[in-house]
Structure formats: structure tokens, C-alpha cells
């Protein structure tokens, strides 16, 4: 009986020691999980933003696109859709700035190139 308790104690201490050592020496898996979680949060806020955009609720959509950008600062699709919301809200210069940011983060993003001049045309026609 004493031997079983001794073996159990040794195994528990060994397991505890290796767990602590791995946490002290390598936080990379935890950091990778946090990065993945931020990407997931960005995608979820983006999808909610798209839903609001389709309902023509531009302010709510922009809030969600802003959150998506917060979690993934180079999220080109979020910048383009935020730009669409801004354009629909009459904020043409800010829309163009968002299209420019989308292009900055993804040079070959056709939607950004398509929407950018449309914002300028709508802005000129409103004058």
C-alpha cells in the first residue's frame, strides 16, 4: 500500500513538473490559440456587419466592421464593406479612405478598385 502511494506521488510530481516546465518554456501554443481566436472574432463581426449592411443598417454594420478590423487590422474585406456603408451614408471621403486601406492590405482586391471611383463619382454628382 505504501508503495502504491509512493508511485502515485512520484507520477503526480513528475506530471506537475513537466506541465509547469512546458508552460514556463513555451507559451507559443497559447499565443497561437489567441491569434486564432482573434481571427475567429474578426470573421464573426464581419459576418454580422454583412447582415446589417444587407438590411441597410449602416451604423450597426460599421460598428461590426470596426470590430473586425480591431481584431484583424489588415482585413481588406472589412475595409471595403465599411467603405460601402460610408458611401451609402454620404461620407464619401471616408469611404475612399477605407477603399485605399483595403488596397493597401490587398493590392489585387478588385472590389476596392471597383468601389473607390464609384464613391468619387457619387460625391461629384451630389455637388
Supply the key terms.
mainly alpha; Ycf3/AcsC/BcsC/TPR_MFPF; TPR repeat; signal; Serine Threonine Protein Phosphatase 5, Tetratricopeptide repeat; 127 residues; TPR_rpt; elongated; repeat
Describe what you observe in this structure.
The protein is an all-alpha fold and 127 residues long. It has a single domain (28-126), classed as Serine Threonine Protein Phosphatase 5, Tetratricopeptide repeat (Alpha Horseshoe), CATH 1.25.40.10. Helices cover 86% and strands 0% of the residues. It is built from six helices and no strands. The radius of gyration is 25 Å and the shape is elongated. The model has no long low-confidence stretch (mean pLDDT 79).
Task: Give a short summary of the structure.
The chain has helices spanning 2-25, 28-54, 58-71, 76-88, 92-105, 110-126. It is mostly helical and 127 residues long. α3 runs antiparallel to α4 (76-88), α4 packs antiparallel against α5 (92-105) and α4 (76-88) runs parallel beside α6 (110-126).
Determine the CATH topology. Serine Threonine Protein Phosphatase 5, Tetratricopeptide repeat
Which homologous superfamily in CATH is the superfamily? Tetratricopeptide repeat domain
Largest sheet: none
Say how many strands there are.
0
Give the overall pLDDT as a whole number: 79
Compressed to H and E, one letter per element, the order equals: HHHHHH
Indicate the topology.
Blueprint: H1 2-25, H2 28-54, H3 58-71, H4 76-88, H5 92-105, H6 110-126
Helix pairs in contact: 2-3, 2-4, 3-4, 4-5, 4-6, 5-6
